[in-house]
Amino acid sequence: MGSETFWNSQERARRVVASVKTLKAQIDPLSGVMKDFEDAKLAYEMSKEAGDKELLKEADESLFGLVGRMEKVELRSLLSGEHDTKNCFLTINAGVGGTEANDWAEMLFRMYLFYCEKMGFEVEEVDKGFGVEVGIDSVTLHIKGPFAFGYLKCERGSHRLARVSPFNAQGKRQTSFCSVEVTPEFEDVDVTIPDNEVEVTPFVRASGPGGQNVNKVSSKAILHFDITRSASIPDDVRQRALTQFASRINSEGKLVISCDTSASQHKNREECTARLKQLLLQAATPPKIRKKSKPSRTSVRKRLQEKSRHSAKKAGRRGDWSEE
C-alpha cells in the first residue's frame, strides 16, 4: 500500500484496502487480548513478589475484564463464512396478523436498533413503510460494522409472536408473523441488467409523518424488476431468488425495491439499482452443501451404552414375565 503505483488502479486498490480492513478486524482484537493478558500476568507476578495488594487488585480486575473480551474473540473465530466480515442490509416485513403484525414488526425494529447500538454498528435507514394504524409495514436498514453480516445472518427467517392482543376488544390471543431478510453488502457487483426489464417509479407520495420527512418521501424511488419473465437471468438463479426474496415480490411477479435515504431522487434511484444487483448476486451464489459428519467416538460409546442398558431392561422384564 505504500507503493507509488498502488493507486493507479482504483478497483484493485479498493479490493486490497477492503481485504486489509477485514484482516485487521480479525487480528487486532486477538492481539490486543494477548498483549493485555501478558501485562496482567506480569503485574500479578510482580505483586506476589513485592506483596503489593493494590497492584494485585489491579491485576485481578484486568484479568476479570479479559474474560468477556476473550469470549468475543472466540465467537468471532466461528464467523468464518465467505461474507461474514461484510456490512449487511436487514429488512423486516410484517406478515400475517394485520395491525398486530405491524406492531410486532416495530418491536423487532427497535430490538435490532438496540442490538446494533450495543455492538457499535452504524445504522442507516434505507426505506420505511408505516402501518395503517400502528407500527410499521416494512423497513430496510443498512448496517455497517465489522462482522455485521456474520452476527445478524442467523436472524433470517420468519419470527412469530403469540400474545393477548391489546388491539382486540375481546382480549383474544393472537399470533402474528414477521419475516426478516439479511443480505451482505457486495462492494464490487458485476451484474448486467437490461434497462427494458427495470421500471423505476419516482416521486411517490406515501403516507407517514410530516415535517422534514416529506422531503425524503417526495424523492422516494421504487424499482420494479420483472424477475419471472426476465430473459437475462438463468433459471436456477430465478428459482433461488423467488425463494429467498418471496416477501419482496408482488402479485404481478415483480421484485420491488424502494429507497428514500436521500433527498436526491437520483441517488435513491442509484441505490435501488445497486440493491437489485446485490440481491441477484446473492441469488447467483449456490448454497454450500454440508458434508455429513461422522459421529465422534464419545457419542458412539454413549449410544452403545444406552443401547445395552435398554436391552438389559427389556431382558429383566421378560424374566419377570416368565416367573409369573
Largest sheet: 5 strands, antiparallel
Low-pLDDT ranges: none
* Residues in helix, %: 40-55%
Mean pLDDT: 80
Q: How many domains, in number, for the residues?
A: 3
Tell me the series of helices and strands, N- to C-terminal: HHEHEEHEEEHEHEHH
- Total helical segments: 8
Computed CA radius of gyration, to the nearest angstrom? 27 Å
- Strand fraction equals 15-25%
Question: Helix/strand-derived class?
Answer: alpha+beta
Secondary structure layout:
Elements: H1 10-50, H2 53-78, E1 88-94, H3 99-119, E2 122-130, E3 136-144, H4 148-152, E4 157-164, E5 173-184, E6 198-201, H5 213-218, E7 221-225, H6 235-244, E8 255-259, H7 265-284, H8 297-323
Antiparallel strand pairs: 1-3, 1-5, 2-3, 4-5, 6-7, 7-8
Helix pairs in contact: 1-2, 6-7
Description:
There is one protein chain. The model has no long low-confidence stretch (mean pLDDT 80). The protein is built from eight helices and eight strands, in the order ααβαββαβββαβαβαα. α1 (10-50) packs antiparallel against α2 (53-78) and α6 packs across α7. The longest helix is centred in the first third of the chain and has 41 residues, at 10-50. The chain has helices spanning 10-50, 53-78, 99-119, 148-152, 213-218, 235-244, 265-284, 297-323, and strands spanning 88-94, 122-130, 136-144, 157-164, 173-184, 198-201, 221-225, 255-259. Helix content is 48%, strand content 18%. It has three domains: 6-78; 82-185, Alpha-Beta Plaits (2-Layer Sandwich); 189-289, Double Stranded RNA Binding Domain (2-Layer Sandwich), CATH 3.30.160.20. It has a five-stranded antiparallel β-sheet, with helices on both faces. Strands 6-7-8 form a three-stranded antiparallel β-sheet, covered by helices on one side.
